[in-house]
Specification:
This protein is mainly alpha-helical. It contains four helices and four strands, in the order ββαβααβα. β1 and β2 form a beta hairpin. α3 runs antiparallel to α4. The chain is elongated, with a radius of gyration of 15 Å.
Amino acid sequence: MWDAKGRGCLLYTSRRSGLCRDATGGRGWGTARGPAGPVSYTHLEFVLRIVAATRTEAEFRAGVSVRGGLALKRAAQARALLQGRDFVVPEDVQELAAPVLAHRLALARPGADALEERHAVADTLRRILAALPPPV
């Protein structure tokens, strides 16, 4: 979804105010608080670009849902907290994208067995991440 200013929104946009609300009920993207403190707008935009890329990928039957994007954001915050930081860096998102999102994706043409399909999904996610420049 997109808010009134054309920015991505992981959860929903208020019709009355036109402001994007995140999972914590905050206004806008700039201060989405979580277990590791605020997540910057650029990192949230990076998560949104990953989610959008899975939705347009021809190899997937359907892309990652809103809940998948929120799970990736929360996992990145948790990883930052475990590493002693109160902020998220792009590596947090990149490292956790495959483990968090892989089980939420199904191939358009299923493989011969589940293990082969799982590897194909992980490979496609790695290719998507390699094509997306991380925020600076």
